[in-house]
Design goal:
globular; alpha/beta; single chain; Rossmann fold; 40% helix
Length: 254
């Protein structure tokens, strides 16, 4: 009989595409695993690259496996173990130009629920890495139905990134009124642009949240990604790796 099936943390990480969301999500997962926690990271982007540097390879997507195997699908077909035991899942998406990515996320989540993915693997922490350019339909699923309880938005100081953060915040607030997930803060991923820090601080009030953590621009990210590794694995003694560990500590103490 399976017991204690509810994760102690259910986290959704949103942000504009290309903002470093998956890099931070993967390193957060790795840092949490170092703390002795069993972590499952679920990539909710049609590009299916959220867990690439944890698994060191492309993970078969739920939608592709479902298309190929239909009713014969098993959890082991798409749940793959990565760095330090992190469980890696990629939702995937439809063929480009055909079908709706949001509907694909809904179908994939339904399939994981049908197969009792969370109950079977019993992770301590589940991280949903979600594309945040548009928060509607399937992309809003982690905000509702009890999937995530804590939401973090990742943004640089670029105007379009901050604009996406504002839209994500509005969506979270709308769902919060129905008793769903809570916005815990903004994670500032610096691009090093002029007046970037000032723009972020000025935007916080409008976005309606606090600055939860700041990451400096650091070339060690690109160096590790060339080796298909997270910073936690590829440069464990670096200052940036310690920043990810600090983020993990703060997330768990929320």
């Amino acid at each position: 009989m399976i017991t204690n099936t509810k994760p102690i943390k259910r986290i959704a990480i949103y942000g504009k595409g290309g903002i470093g969301k998956s890099t931070i999500s993967a390193n957060l997962s790795a840092a949490l695993s170092e703390r002795g926690l069993k972590v499952m990271q679920i990539g909710c982007d049609p590009k299916a690259d959220s867990t690439m540097y944890l698994a060191r390879e492309k993970v078969p997507t739920v939608l592709n496996v479902l298309k190929e195997k239909k009713n014969a699908i098993q959890l082991s077909d798409f749940v793959k173990e990565g760095f330090n035991g992190v469980l890696c899942v990629e939702v995937g998406g439809p063929t480009p130009g055909v079908g709706c990515a949001g509907q694909g996320i809904i179908a994939a989540f339904q399939q994981m629920k049908k197969l009792n993915a969370i109950e079977t693997y019993q992770p301590d922490v589940v991280i949903y890495d979600v594309l945040g350019d548009v928060v509607c339909g399937g992309f809003a699923v982690p905000l509702r139905d009890g999937y995530a309880e804590d939401v973090y938005i990742i943004s640089s100081g670029e105007r379009m990134s901050l604009y996406a953060a504002y839209n994500i915040s509005r969506a979270v607030q709308n769902f919060r009124s129905r008793g769903y997930a809570t916005l815990k803060g903004l994670i500032f991923n610096s691009k090093g642009g002029e007046n970037e820090v000032q723009r972020v601080h000025e935007a916080l009030e409008e976005i309606g949240t606090n600055l939860f953590h700041k990451f400096p621009r650091d070339p060690v990210v690109q160096q590790c990604e060339k080796e298909k590794k997270t910073v936690i694995e590829g440069a464990p003694n670096s200052k940036l790796a310690n920043e990810y560990r600090e983020l993990a500590r703060k997330v768990m103490e929320q």
